[in-house]
Structure formats: structure tokens, C-alpha cells
Specification:
The structure holds 2 protein chains of 2 kinds. By secondary structure, chain A is of the alpha/beta class. Chain A has 9 helices and 9 strands. In chain A, helix 5 runs parallel beside helix 6. The chains are: A alpha/beta, B alpha/beta.
Chain lengths: 253, 253
């Protein structure tokens, strides 16, 4: 696969779910699966998210162009910790491998997404050209309404919603929002990929694995078994991601 | 007239209406003694806002409020087990500061009550001889069966299952039947037939009244207990006797 892009991976440590992956392990798994680029963020439930963000930025600097860093914002931190985030985000934009997005996880950090503080943060993302990942987890339904309203209030910002398109109500919530993209992680294969494509169109679906919770090759296998045309497979595997992240050519390192 | 100890009493301040979930009632009076008198209580088990990712500052605030109180109050610290060593250190710091219990709300951290991250926390509460209070509910994270998995592995630990799984207490009763170290707290236990069953089958000496005030209506929660039609000795146990068994060093006037 030419220039395959995985838009959903994690490195770091998650004690709560007993998961860990180093940057080296991620890169090795990318090599094994033929993945050219990966969006990477720290585990939102890690023991020190601020340190995790720095680890992601360092790893991305060591692999400029290959790893695309997202940084995690924890809205349930204390006001003092939350206040540090945007100034740091602006500083990080000067790095050689700056963040290309932020992560909000309303399941891990239950919060009020209608609060003005969240809107101000998303406004900053609009200003900096950052994608906002809305990372809902298995039990998302109560909070997802707020995510859809947030995306509707910010039509100029691109939102990426992993995994949620596999639930009909998820497609219904986000389907008519053209600024919301979906990744393919944790799908059940053709029976879930095809209805998503039929509803939102191929240009809003991107390959994502969710590694290390899932295995990249297995997620790829499901995608390849989803009865896609070559053109659709190319769009999902790398074309859409290149457009979203402004990448002109596949990595050749 | 039986003494009444409220085993689930939140101390909130104006910060609770920040970006954290807006589930609380409008009552935000911080005068602890006034609230206890107003509710007709003889004592209370108190803790702060359980939505902060790192509750250390919230615990310090609760410590100051309880130190100023002239009422019989039992402070309980909040911890986020996902923080690893930080959480264990916080358990010990709370104990050194006079806290006599630790509360974990798994849903605030998308954390299973049976997670490996819970183990160092419960091991520490057991070592210190203080109870571990765990929110129970309808999610997989705080389902009674996951709390039961944890409690069964640590028979030396005292576990208070808050809310008794709200609407359907059947699995909660099964857990308590298997694990004599599990106690029930009654706030939000909407399924009163299950509450009555728990008192009759598990024993009134393992069920304690809690209101979850001010998130819930304290008067309604207390009326729920009085409306169960309990024998006098059962009522006395639920309203205060069980709490005094779990916190034997404390004596409400």
C-alpha cells in the first residue's frame, strides 16, 4: 500500500487498562504493517498526561514527517493545570514537528462540552489549523450529543471521531456534519464500513487502527475485506488523511 | 428516634459549575454545619467533587472545611487510580491528614473497578484499615460484578458499594452474599424492592444510609429509608449503626 496513513495510535503507559507502547514499538509495528505515517497521541488515561504529551512531541521530532503528533487536553484537570495548556500549545507550534491536532476524550474525562472554555479551546484550534479528535470510548451515548453540538458550533474546524461510526446512532448524530471525519478503528468489517460509507461518503472516512489496543494488521485486514473499490480504498488508506493534514507526498524515509 | 448518619455527603464549591459535568443541584452552600443541621443529621461522611482528574487540591479543600466544622464528620479522600503512585501517595496523605476512607468513582476516569490500577489503592486502604468507597452504576466500569471481582480478591479490605447499582440491585446482592467485606450505601438506589431484599437477605448491619446530597435530594433519600417499613432495629442499623461499624473510631453525637 502506497503511503498508508494510520490516523489513530497511542504511545505511553495506561495503568488503568494495562496498556503500554513505546515509540520504538509503534514504529516497528508500522514497519511490519507497511504504515508510512501515523497520528500519535499519548493515552488519555495515562498517569501523567502532560508528560505523555511531551513524550509524543519528542518522538515526533525524532521522526519528523512520519509521526504526526496530537496532544491531549484534560478538561477535568484543575483550573491551574487547564490554564497552562493553550500557552504550551502555542509554544509547541514552533517545534520542528508541531502538533497537528488535539484530543478530547469526553468518556475518559467527563465534562461539559458546551462550556465556553471548550469553545475557546476549539477557537484556538481553528486559528492554528489543528484537528480536534473527539475520542469517545465504548460507552459514549450520553456524552456524544455534546460532541455533535460542539462540531456544529465550529464548522470551520475538522473533527475526527474514532470508532463511533459503527453504531447507527453515532452515524445519525454526526452524519450530517461535513466537518466531522470518522476513522475505521474497531470496526466489524464490511457490515459496518459499508453503511458508514453509504451515509457519509468515502471522503470522510480515514484508516485508523487504535493501536496498541488493537493490532494494525488486523484492522487493515478488516478494511481490505470490506468490498471497497480501489479508489475508495486509496482514499481511506491515505488520500483523505493527506488532504486533512496537508501532506503532499508519502514519506520516503 | 434513631440517630442518622449520612454516608454520602458531598462538599461542593462554585468550581463545580466550571467545565465539569453539570449534574449538581443549585444548592452550593459551603457551610457544612448549616447543611448538617438543616438536614437533621447527627453526622456525615463527607467528600468533595469526584470529577477532578487529580483530586489532590479538592481533598485539601475538604480537609479545611472539616477542620473548621463543629459537627461529627468523617472526611473521605478522593483518588484517581489511573495516576498510579500519585494515587497511592494520596491515599496515605489523606490518612495522615485525618481522612478515614477513600472514594473512587470509576466512571470519572473510564476505569473498571476491577482494573489492575485499583489494586495498589485497595491494598493501601486495607493496610491502613480504612474503607474503600466505590461508586456503582450501570456502566461496565462500575457494575457491581466488577466491584465484586475486586472485593473478592481482598477479603481483608472493607468495600462500601455506593448506590447499590441504582435501579437493579440483583447483582449487587449476589456480590455482597459472596463477599462479607462488602457493604451497601443507599443513595440513588431507586429499586427499593432490591433495597428491602438486601436488608433482609444480606443484613441491615451491612446497609448504610447515604443521600448523595446535594446531587440528590437528601430529604427524599431519607424518606426512602423510612418508607421501607423496617423493624426498629433494622432502621437503627441502616441510619447509623452500620456506618459506626465501618468507622468504629468515630462516634456521632
Amino acid at each position: 500500500m502506497n503511503g498508508l496513513i494510520d490516523v489513530h495510535t497511542h504511545i505511553g503507559v495506561d495503568l488503568g487498562d494495562d496498556r503500554r507502547q513505546s515509540a520504538g514499538e509503534l514504529l516497528a509495528s508500522m514497519d511490519a504493517a507497511g504504515v508510512a505515517h501515523a497520528v500519535v497521541s499519548t493515552f488519555e488515561g495515562g498517569p501523567d498526561v502532560e508528560a505523555g504529551n511531551l513524550e509524543v512531541l519528542r518522538a515526533s521530532s525524532a521522526e519528523v514527517g512520519r509521526l504526526l503528533p496530537f496532544v491531549v487536553f484534560v478538561p477535568t484537570e484543575t483550573p491551574a493545570v487547564r490554564a497552562r495548556f493553550v500557552p504550551r500549545l502555542r509554544d509547541w507550534m514552533a517545534r520542528d514537528a508541531p502538533p497537528v491536532g488535539i484530543v478530547l476524550n469526553p468518556t475518559m474525562h467527563p465534562c461539559d462540552l458546551s462550556h465556553p472554555e471548550i469553545d475557546r479551546l476549539v477557537d484556538v484550534c481553528a486559528e492554528l489549523g489543528l484537528v480536534v479528535m473527539l475520542h469517545y470510548m465504548a460507552q459514549w451515548s450520553d456524552a456524544a450529543d455534546g460532541g455533535a453540538r460542539l462540531a456544529r458550533r465550529h464548522p470551520d474546524v475538522t473533527f475526527l471521531v474514532p470508532s463511533i461510526g459503527w453504531i447507527p446512532a453515532g452515524i445519525e448524530l454526526f452524519g450530517d456534519l461535513g466537518n466531522v471525519l470518522f476513522d475505521t478503528s474497531k470496526s466489524y468489517g464490511r457490515m459496518t464500513v459499508q453503511p458508514l460509507l453509504a451515509t457519509v461518503g468515502v471522503e470522510r472516512v480515514l484508516f485508523g487502527s487504535g493501536s496498541p489496543e488493537t493490532e494494525v494488521e488486523n484492522e487493515l485486514g478488516k478494511l481490505h475485506a470490506s468490498d471497497l473499490t480501489d479508489a475508495d480504498l486509496s482514499s481511506i488508506s491515505y488520500g483523505n488523511a493527506r488532504r486533512v493534514f496537508g501532506m503532499s507526498a508519502p514519506w520516503s524515509g | 428516634m434513631s440517630a442518622t448518619i449520612d454516608a454520602h455527603f458531598h462538599l461542593l464549591d462554585s468550581s463545580c459549575h466550571e467545565v465539569l459535568p453539570r449534574i449538581w443541584s443549585d444548592e452550593r452552600r459551603v457551610d457544612l454545619d448549616e447543611r448538617i443541621d438543616g438536614a437533621g443529621l447527627d453526622g456525615a461522611v463527607v467528600f468533595g467533587n469526584p470529577f477532578y482528574w487529580n483530586p489532590t487540591e479538592e481533598n485539601l479543600r475538604v480537609r479545611e472545611l472539616t477542620r473548621r466544622s463543629g459537627k461529627p464528620v468523617i472526611p473521605v479522600g478522593l483518588v484517581n487510580p489511573r495516576l498510579g503512585k500519585v494515587a497511592v501517595d494520596e491515599v496515605r496523605r489523606c490518612y495522615d491528614n485525618g481522612f478515614r476512607g477513600i472514594k473512587v468513582r470509576p466512571d470519572s476516569y473510564a476505569l473498571s473497578a476491577a482494573s489492575p490500577a485499583m489494586r495498589p489503592v485497595i491494598e493501601t486502604t486495607a493496610e491502613l484499615g480504612i474503607p474503600l468507597l466505590i461508586h456503582s452504576g450501570r456502566t461496565a466500569w462500575s457494575h457491581p460484578l466488577t466491584i465484586g471481582d475486586l472485593a473478592r480478591d481482598y477479603p481483608e479490605a472493607t468495600v462500601v458499594m455506593q448506590h447499590m447499582f441504582d435501579l437493579n440491585g440483583d447483582s449487587a446482592i449476589r456480590v455482597a452474599a459472596q463477599s462479607p467485606n462488602v457493604y451497601f450505601e443507599t443513595s440513588c438506589a431507586i429499586g427499593t424492592p432490591y433495597l428491602r431484599r438486601a436488608i433482609n437477605e444480606i443484613g441491615a448491619d451491612r446497609v448504610m444510609f447515604g443521600s448523595d446530597s446535594p446531587a440528590l435530594d437528601g430529604a427524599a433519600e431519607l424518606a426512602k429509608i423510612h418508607n421501607l417499613g423496617l423493624a426498629d432495629d433494622q432502621l437503627a442499623s441502616v441510619l447509623s449503626g452500620t456506618a459506626l461499624t465501618v468507622w468504629p473510631m468515630e462516634r456521632a453525637s
